[in-house]
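Possible regression after last week's pipeline update?

I re-ran a chain I had predicted before the update to compare outputs. Posting the input and the new output here so someone can diff against the archived version. Not blocking, just want to make sure nothing changed silently.
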Amino acid sequence: MRELIVAGAGPVGLSAALAARSQGLPALVLEARDHRARRPGSRAIFVHRATLELLDRISPGLGGEVASRGLVWDTRRTLWAGREVYARAYRAPAAGAPFTSLPQTVVEDLLRRACEAAGVEFGWADPVREVAVAEDGVRLVTASGAAHEARHVIAADGARSVVRERLGIALAGTASATEFVVVDVADGPSPLPAERVFHYRHPAVGGRNVLLVPFRGGWRVDVQCRPGDDAQGFAASAADWLPDVLPGIRRPRPVWSSVYRFQQRVAERFTDPFHRVLLAGEAAHLLPPFGARGMNSGIADAVEAARAVRARGASPAAPGDPVAGYAVARRAAAERNVRAAGAALDHLAAPRLRQRWTQRAAATAAPLWPRAARWLDSAPYGPRLRQVRY
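New output (post-update):
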């Protein structure tokens, strides 16, 4: 019987396997996709400093490599109806990147390479179909009919987690009524300045809120739809409205688009009654892109899950179950992230008249009152990392 199997080869599953290897545990990763398959779109593009540090901890030099492959934007701006109300430029850090912005696929490629170098085993194109948990371990059966047994399983098989579903663990929470359209735009011959820009009531798209975030190789354009909007149609017509949103790029070229809602869901439990399966990443919680909590919190889950498995195996008779401790601590972190995401959505949607008045008053006062300007700039993303630990 193996000590550990990881379900899922996304950034969370790969991080879990790599963290296990860094502690001397062998790891097998089972993945539904073929090893040559590529995910569409940039997806999670923002990697926080804390995540870069975690990656360096489980594979020395990996965090630095991820940082070097990404982009560090040095300016943030916020506009109200086309008028700038906040701007801040940052000096280059003396040492270490404060964050990095790059497509999730690049992060996955680097993680996979590190896993292969560390001796992680892979089972590609063979998704988990059945899960049986007992007091002494877990039995997984894949689509090919292969059976795998392990003392522990880290379930990082995504939002539609088969492992979570087979365990009968529900996701509790809500999804926003508001829809968002996200579009990836390729860099033009003369790239725009690397600045994160948020528009309240952008005049070029009918007064909708728009977030522009650069990443290595392109731009993420995120538009908040209004009630009654045809979000799919709005995404399909991106080539028509992008020139007004990204005027510095001649003929902006959309390369991927999608429609999403703010998901704020957390698994009711992060482990089974025998504490043999540990849920991590989107198998455990669904969070919106604003605030960049999804992948970052998932990688934190992964590292802690591997640590808990190692601690339980090293001292099985020690008081206190590390897996149970993992489940409590990481579920609490997910709940904090959900509350932070809820605060961000409430600000963006501004469903109450008083909120809309407050935002308009802050925009009017911003040129003379820096505190109002800072609030307008920061509120769309919810509490900062230093306030909500991932």
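Follow-up from reviewer: compared with the archived run. DSSP finds eleven helices and 17 strands in the chain. Marking as no regression found.
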